[in-house]
Amino acid sequence: MRPIYVRLMDRLYWLCIGIGIVSVVCMTLLIFAGVIMRYIFLIGANFAEPLSIFFAVQLTMYGAAACLRAGVHLRLTLFVDMLPERLRPLPMHLVQLLLGAIGVFMVIYGQSLVRTTWFQAYPEFVYVRVGFVYSAIPISGLFTVLFVVESWLYPQAMAQELEDEARHAEKFAEEEARRLTL
Question: Where does the chain cross the membrane (predicted)?
């Protein structure tokens, strides 16, 4: 049985993944609508670009947090992984500390950015606040901190999850290779 905190972080992880998926789909549809309106109806879609920027910010922030938890984000452990196994624990703790500090920085200064830009509006949309767009920064920073805390509290659960994912990916790759050779 997995600890409650790990299960909560699983749900948070899937929320980040869901936001990313919705963002990609919306950006694709908005860009498609902009192209159709410009080249078929001969009118510019002034709404497509600002809304695409909104979704790109959401995708970037929540996607980075989700990738960090999944262990696929190109992060500071790149250099730690180059070290011999016996030298890895101390630098790994330092990396986790730095990632937590970056998350705290995102929360504090992201909140300041949101407060500063909250009453600014996009010229194309008076109802979309610039601060709302940037609210993804402190929220994803909080998610990052929570994911780092999870890796501190439950390193075995995280290692097991990464191992399970690697096994699943290897099995999938073998099945695909088998399917392609037929």
Answer: 12-41, 53-72, 93-114, 126-149
Does 85 map to a domain?
no
The domain of 22 spans 4-74+92-181
pLDDT tens, position by position, 86-140: 887 888 888 889 889 999 999 999 999 999 999 988 887 778 788 988 999 999 9
The pLDDT tens digits of the residues spanning 74-100 come to 666 677 778 888 887 888 888 889 889
Closest CA to 16 of 61, 50, 77, 53: 61
